[in-house]
Queue: 4 jobs
Job 1
Amino acid sequence: MAQSETSTEDEEGGSGGGPTQVLEFGLGDETYCLDIDVIDEIVDAGQLTRIPNSPPQVEGVMDLRGRTTSIINPKTVFDIEEDGERNRIIVFDPDAIGDQGTIGWIVDEVYQVSNITPDDVDETTTANDENVHGIVKGDDKFVVWVDPDIVGDQ
């Protein structure tokens, strides 16, 4: 019976190196993803209040269920110049991202949740970037797997 419990843990992404669920989203023409475990919710982009003298990646703040949430533009962080819809906000779980408070990323589009395995990830092209987990090789595209802490490092 203990053996069946262990295999269930491995299938759910436990310590056995099983699949990881990631959320794929679009910024300009590129597709990125984040580990689903760091995401609290996805909401429609609403009215933002600009903050004077804030860093360039901070678009402003908004009230989400009584919490003041800082909204970050990851296009500024990743140096993406293309304009896009900017119609969704990925809100991070404050407990999962350290002491950055409640933050969200404004993105052009949210695509899907995918399961990826270690074999799907090419880490050789991102060896010197601790904020990029790797490039996920899909059927007809590459997806950049990023860490939300990249914003805090700017």
Job 2
Amino acid sequence: MTPRTEVAVAMLHQNNRWLLQLRDDVEGIIAPGCWGLFGGHLEAGESAEVGLRRELLEEINLRASHLTPWFTHHNRKRLLHVFVGPLPVAVESLNLMEGQDLTLASMGQIQRGRIYSRQLNENRALAGCLKLVVQQLRSNLPFDRHLNPIKEAGG
């Protein structure tokens, strides 16, 4: 039996919007050309948080200040760890080193299932991982009030 792959991703928020990555259009990767969350595969012996911090440095040169575990999801092939936290810098200061584009998107935009890429000048679909997060939000999975950007805006 093939061992389960472990993955950690981050829902980083700023001003009531979430940071998304448009994945490369490369054959052989998960969800090519779709919008997803920054993060990736864990290395052997790496905790989910350590692996996520490494991935954020590799993908956007970000040292995330606060990452809080939100939920995990598993199937036969993958164990997914989802973290939430604030995006502590302006999106323009991020250095995109993996993927085709990045954007800050509102929850309404994400829930519509397609997001516009300024780099490609077209709408692209959501990756399965991001769809799973939207499903969790719709199912009212407990979500700390101080981490929910929709509730932050209302005070």
Job 3
Amino acid sequence: MPDPSPPPTPVHRYCVAAAAERYHVPVSLFYGILAAEDTRVGQKVQDANGSYDMGPMGINSLWLPALARYGITRSAILDSGCQNVAAGAWILARKLAGHQARATAFAHPRAFWRHVGDYNSAIPHWNHQYRQRVAELARRDFYRPLERISGGGHP
């Protein structure tokens, strides 16, 4: 009997742009997190504490009860690239509460980046390593600008 679940869907740049706009987070920060997490749709990574990270944004299974209150399932987080990015954006926005505006981020860069690190871990050592990695990756030009997608150029 065939599997009734839909096939996994990839992350599209449109999903990243929409999530960035909805949650007022720089697109480059999302790409930095996606590169730092370095996981794919459908992939689970076991953590030392018994939880696991899911999909491209590395959504930790500890977030599943909170996401379930909004009707978001484990399957959606694991198998839908766009849903994974949207959930990751929601989590990141919660971590960045009070530091979403660019002016605030630049006025308090240490606090802003500490909150970015909180997306991965509140433990100071891991937080520091993660935020440094995300900052480095967010500065790289490893993705094509989103403007090229809407124009007539090649994706």
Job 4
Amino acid sequence: MDLPTYTNIWRIEKRLYKLYDLRLPMPLPIVWIGVFVGVAVPWSLLLALLGLPFDAPWHVVYIVPPGVVTWLSTRPVIESKRLTELLQSQARYIGEPRTWCRMAPVAAPAIRSAQAATSARYSGRAGKTQPL
């Protein structure tokens, strides 16, 4: 009996259409917003530590690089996976065991003697057959 599962419902991409009363020009996925904020904050701190003034062409220096990184990191790279999903699957592959033993011994049991390895013992029973 097959039971339906709904695990793929969590992979539906959620999009944001407006922020309060401000309607966005295009619907933005929540992941894009999170990646942009996660890249823009360290980028802004790095520029502040380097002493770059905010009155420089701020839209080019402060917004474009995090936007490009966001766009590159959220598009499919290989096997229709995003960069983060690809890195997670590669890390999971490295962490997996090389062989699956499935409750069986990994190696053959040790042989008790050299004679046992070269000889075999068979037993059987023979009886008379009745003519037809």
